[in-house]
């Protein structure tokens, strides 16, 4: 299945990054990375953030936690899909992508999801060009989504993936979601210059 989103241009692509969420420099570095990508978009191109996951599994709740965190910040410069109240998960992902396609013309999609990895990488946040493949770590065949992807490595992969996700520390997932949301919010505000205050003033 063709990835949902606009194919990224091969020129001027930044190399993917992988940063520990616990490093004090990570939020600033992530925000700068997001900004460098988003500032290249035409001002008229809609930005859509898709946070994939479910609150029924601690490890897989990273996406919805990021979505709810962003929603509370109230930035009006993008469209958001996937929160704790209205998660985007395996059952409704395809329908959500159809809705996005019907509602937005050529959107630039930022896809966010949890993943499993090596022991040394647990707690790291990865950002790169191209789509993510939700459910790949637990052998689910779901549509690929995103022009860029953000993944948080929440636990160790390779065996009993469902059990591992269910037994991931909530503290880790929440801390990672805070870093991702704050960095992305800062980048979006820098690029699109829209905040709750400015939106209210313009009404």
Describe this structure in words.
The protein is of the alpha/beta class. It has one domain: Rossmann fold (3-Layer(aba) Sandwich), CATH 3.40.50. 35% of the residues lie in helices and 18% in strands. It is built from six helices and six strands; from the N terminus they run βαβαβαβββααα. A six-stranded mixed beta sheet has the order 1-5-6-4-2-3. It is globular and about 45 Å long. It starts with 16 loop residues before the first strand and ends with a helix. Keywords: Hydrolase, Protease.
* Distance from first to last alpha carbon: 42 Å
Helix content: 25-40%
**Main sheet: strand order:** 1-5-6-4-2-3
CATH superfamily: HybD-like
The total beta strand count reads 6
Q: Can you tell me the CATH class? A: Alpha Beta
Would you list the SSEs in sequence order as H and E?
EHEHEHEEEHHH
Mean pLDDT: 87
| Tally of separate domains | 1
Envelope shape:
globular
Which fold name fills CATH's third level, the topology? Rossmann fold
Q: Which regions are unreliable across 5 or more consecutive residues at pLDDT < 50?
A: 6-11, 195-203
Strand content: 15-25%
Known CATH architecture: 3-Layer(aba) Sandwich
Query: How does the major sheet shape up?
Result: 6 strands, mixed
Oligomeric state, counting identical vs distinct chains: single chain
The helix tally amounts to 6
Class computed from helices, strands and strand pairing? alpha/beta
CA gyration radius, whole angstroms = 16 Å
């Amino acid at each position: 299945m063709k990835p949902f989103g606009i194919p990224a241009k091969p020129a001027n692509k930044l190399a993917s990054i992988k940063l520990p969420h616990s490093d004090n420099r990570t939020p600033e570095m992530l925000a700068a990375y997001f900004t460098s990508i988003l500032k290249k978009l035409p001002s008229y191109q809609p930005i859509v953030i898709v946070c994939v996951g479910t609150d029924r599994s601690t490890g897989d709740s990273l996406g919805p936690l990021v979505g709810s965190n962003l929603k509370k910040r109230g930035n009006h410069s993008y469209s958001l899909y996937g929160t704790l109240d209205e998660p985007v998960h395996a059952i409704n992902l395809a329908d959500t992508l159809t809705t996005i396609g019907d509602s937005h013309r050529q959107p630039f999609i930022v896809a966010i999801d949890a993943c499993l990895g090596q022991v040394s990488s647990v707690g790291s946040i990865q950002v790169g060009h191209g789509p993510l493949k939700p459910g790949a770590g637990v052998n689910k065949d779901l549509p690929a989504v995103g022009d860029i992807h953000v993944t948080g490595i929440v636990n160790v992969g390779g065996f009993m993936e469902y059990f591992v996700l269910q037994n991931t520390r909530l503290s880790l997932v929440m801390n990672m979601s805070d870093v991702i949301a704050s960095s992305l919010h800062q980048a979006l505000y820098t690029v699109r210059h829209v905040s709750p205050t400015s939106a209210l003033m313009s009404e």
